[in-house]
Amino acid sequence: MLPTETDYLRLSYRADLHLLIMRWTRAATSVEHRAGYQAALGLAQEHQAGHWLIDLRSRGLAELADLQWVLEDFRAEMRSTLPATTRRLAYLTTPFHADILRPRLTELARGGEANAQVQVFTEEMPAQQWLQSGQ
């Protein structure tokens, strides 16, 4: 498992909110992208945290193949790793990237809601409120 901080990702867990936070600090390669999500899943398993705030504002969007991996393979793995929790992923991004990401999610995320719900936000407070409303 990755340490909780690398040059491309900071992971933390807020026990008061029962919330895992992934803050990407720069653009990531496909290998870093997948390693980051796996490290986050390890931390989430330790705390049984199914609600994640994923901050993409410093990173930008992942390649389509990596997004598809998250939506298909990773969400299924998340469900099997955290079966007793509700699973929600809140992507925090810039307005420009939100306009790109929302239609991609609509197109690629069909049928995966049982594994984890996914929403896109441009402000942190609404994202946290949505995550809290699902507990």
Q: What does this entry look like structurally?
A:
The chain has 135 residues and is an alpha/beta fold. 44% of the residues lie in helices and 20% in strands. The chain has four helices and five strands. It has helices spanning 30-47, 64-81, 95-108, 124-133; strands spanning 9-14, 19-24, 51-55, 88-92, 117-121. It has a five-stranded mixed β-sheet with strand order 1-2-3-4-5, with helices on both faces. Helix 1 packs parallel to helix 2. It is globular. The model has no long low-confidence stretch (mean pLDDT 91).
Radius of gyration, taken over Cα atoms and rounded to an integer in Å:
13 Å
Please identify the structural class as seen in this structure.
alpha/beta
Name the helicity range: 40-55%
Q: Terminal Cα separation, in Å? A: 27 Å
Q: Main beta sheet, described?
A: 5 strands, mixed
Total beta strands: 5
Q: Trace the largest sheet across and list its strands.
A: 1-2-3-4-5
Average pLDDT: 91
Tell me the strand percentage band: 15-25%
Basic shape: globular
How do the helices and strands follow one another from N- to C-terminus? EEHEHEHEH
